[in-house]
Amino acid sequence: MAQPGGSRSVTVSDVQQLVKKKDELEAQIKACYELLESQKGVGMNEPLVDAEGFPRDDIDLYQVRATRHNIICLQNDHKALMKQVEEALHQLHAREKEKQARDEAEALAEARSQSQSLPQPFARVNAVSPGSPASDSGLQVDDEIVEFGSVNVNNFQSLQNIATVVQHSKGRPLSVTVIRSGRKVHMGLIPKHWAGKGLLG
């Protein structure tokens, strides 16, 4: 397994392996302490000689010395391993942050390119009368009109252009395209007489 900070980037499974190693080390250290405990409760610092300076004969001196040495080595390993775990986690978080920033930048770029690819509107709907042909077709206030029959941003001069198209399309479906909440919406509108004024409302 590559060490954190090596040439290969750290993965979640690397961190899991490091944590597993750490758990194993901690279990070994615990077992060593239990072993010392079994030797008349001798810890890491209790004297191994009696009051007269002779080696104690009530404990296994060799085993105590070996276990104490073992604990020191294991604790050093544990310390080094904890540093590795910390570095690995730091790398993972840093990479996660980078990924998040990249995703946000991509989403922003996509949104920008979509808004750039939307056609240019030439009029905005500021009122729709209830029950009118415009209302029946699904037209809404604040819809931005990009196509109204044959009229678009390239040939639109005044609202008279729309009035002319409406007169010519009376009783026949008229294709209308609007931009609503940043998206293109297509609808069919049939100009006709209704209870209110005009053919659209």
TrEMBL record:
The keyword Chaperone applies. Keywords: Chaperone. Residues 90-182 form the PDZ domain. Residues 96-105 have a biased composition (Basic and acidic residues). It holds the Pfam family PDZ_6. InterPro entries: Nas2_N (IPR040815), PDZ (IPR001478), PDZ_6 (IPR041489), PDZ_sf (IPR036034), PSMD9 (IPR035269). One of its GO terms (cellular component) is nucleus. Residues 96-116 are annotated as: Disordered. Transmembrane segments: none annotated. One of its GO terms (biological process) is proteasome regulatory particle assembly. PANTHER family: 26S PROTEASOME NON-ATPASE REGULATORY SUBUNIT 9. Interacts with PSMC3. Part of a transient complex (modulator) containing PSMD9, PSMC6 and PSMC3 formed during the assembly of the 26S proteasome. Acts as a chaperone during the assembly of the 26S proteasome, specifically of the base subcomplex of the PA700/19S regulatory complex (RC). During the base subcomplex assembly is part of an intermediate PSMD9:PSMC6:PSMC3 module, also known as modulator trimer complex; PSMD9 is released during the further base assembly process. Belongs to the proteasome subunit p27 family. This is 26S proteasome non-ATPase regulatory subunit 9. It comes from Ceyx cyanopectus.
